[in-house]
Design goal:
The structure holds two protein chains of two kinds. In chain A, 31% of the residues lie in helices and 18% in strands. A five-stranded parallel beta sheet of chain A has the order 4-3-2-5-6, with helices on both faces. Chain A has a five-stranded parallel beta sheet with strand order 16-15-14-17-18. In chain A, strand 3, helix 3 and strand 4 form a beta-alpha-beta unit. By secondary structure, chain B is an alpha/beta fold. The model of chain B has no long low-confidence stretch (mean pLDDT 96). Chain B starts with a strand and ends with a helix. Chain B has a four-stranded parallel beta sheet with strand order 1-2-3-4. Chain B has two domains: 131 residues, Aconitase, domain 4 (Alpha-Beta Barrel), CATH 3.20.19.10; 30 residues, no CATH class. In chain B, 32% of the residues lie in helices and 16% in strands. Classes of the chains: A alpha/beta, B alpha/beta. At the A-B interface, strand 1, helix 2, helix 3, helix 5 and strand 7 of A face helix 4, helix 5 and helix 7 of B.
Chain lengths: 426, 165
Amino acid sequence: MGTLTEEIFSRRIGRQVHAGEIVVAPVDYAMAHDVTGPLAIEAFRKLDVPLWDPERVIMVFDHILPANTVASAGLHKIVRDFADEYSVTHVFQEGICHQLMVEKGFIRPGGIVVGADSHSTTYGALGCFSAGFGSTDIAVTFATGKTWFRVPETIRINLRGALPPGIFPKDLALKVIRMLGAEGANYLAVEWGGEAVEAMSVDERLTLANLTVDFGGKAGLCEPDEHTRAYLGEAEVFDLHPIAPAYRSVIEVDAEKLEPQIACPPAIDNVQDLSAVEGTELDEVFVGSCANGRIEDLAIVAGYFKGKQVHPRTRTIVVPASKQIYMEALARGYIQTFMESGALVMNAGCGPCLGRQHGVLGPGERALSTSNRNYAGRMGSAQADIYLANPAVAAASALAGAIADPRLLPLPALPKRVWELVGGRN
Amino acid sequence: MARVFKFGDGISTDAIIPGRYNVTTDPSELGKACFIEARPDFANTVQSGDVIVGGRNFGCGSSREHAPMAIKAAGVHAVVARSFARIFYRNAINIGLPVIQCDAIYDAVGDGDPVSIDIRSGAIDVNGKMFQGEAPGPVAVAIMEAGTLIDLIKTRGWAAIEEVS
């Protein structure tokens, strides 16, 4: 009985659990990366106990990859030494942690997963309860396989109607953030539902779940369905639904009336319609991140770039979210299109999102990014401005050298949903 | 006398410790870079025992525990805010940085005001006026009494939390 969150916790703990309860629950996996991992490892060593399960601890090098300074190489060495010492099975340097958690099959509907990264909400797209934690919490999970939760109440968000051409899940997420504010779901779970979500591929749902933390959400869940099953390439039908749920609130958003939404500097909830900022000149466009660095996103951008040049004033940086996506983009010719158009293509990982590598912003510069954070100083100088948008807006803006409306350009030939094209999980 | 350092709404962990400065696990290095771009004089002027008063959604954004570590290492005794982002709040408690949610105090204080705080009760005395912050939850109390989450789990295991849940 209850919300998706209450259902997941009740099944896992073996009794009916209600929002507001504090529970100690076992988790499926605990993930940390090259920035949060070293602190988690230091805290874990203080506990002076064996690792809970070397096959259920995931370590990812993605935030600074390859290491770009002696200091970051030192962080990487802490992680590598730990992985060797404790025989950690899953150590990756082939993409963003959140994308890899999904691609590598660690995420299951009904699971509980914790990550030492705020965007660990991403896995909710597959009907898994997942939340971001700091390094000390993750260290305790490394030692015990458990963590404590206050089972959150849930905001239900119903996205009504079909997405019109040129409007993407990113716009829906930013619209919701515009409505609820940057802490609108603080301490709460979010359920994403309605016709627009039911029609979405898992890749598109990953964008919604990912951005849930950016308005404070502890978890962002979608009900697992046929799309989920096809994505996981499995025959199993997931019997996981909200049952007579008592929501804290229910919010309806009309997808059909939406304009492209832009999060303007310096806050995620400073959201405006595209028309309000159209023409703003840009020094950098970044396509990538755990919000929008997947194959569908690259397909959209390559579609607009085909046969064109990015504006000379605007350095354009493309970072596939994972090696698998990078290889697929190679096979489909997208990487060639990006190179021919004058964009820079970086190795799979977090790219310039967090201001440490691959396109740091200088004072007074302006960037438009498909990522999820636009705080002052996020991508470099605190005197730089960051706009967040969907991948089509990013593509049109890179071509124009200024924030531009992709709906004024000929609609490129967009491929079908990624799970059809990629053929499910490898 | 401890003094107030007042900040606005939506202070992100990127503002507390920008990504370019959290490439270390050394608390003293983090403390030196605390608010290095958002308020460059902070680390040099804050004194041991001073208090940060923030607005809404303090500590939003990245889960980096370097943020409360930097604040603590800079010498800050406690952070009082109108509201906290969930992960920051939990991280701060876990490492032994007291955090108190109090809405009413915000408009009544300014930079440099003298302040004293009773962490256990959440009572705050600023400019001779008393404010009552929200009491921490039972798990936070258990962690605070042990010192840090690591201390609590090391000495008592999950039973310490199961018995207050």
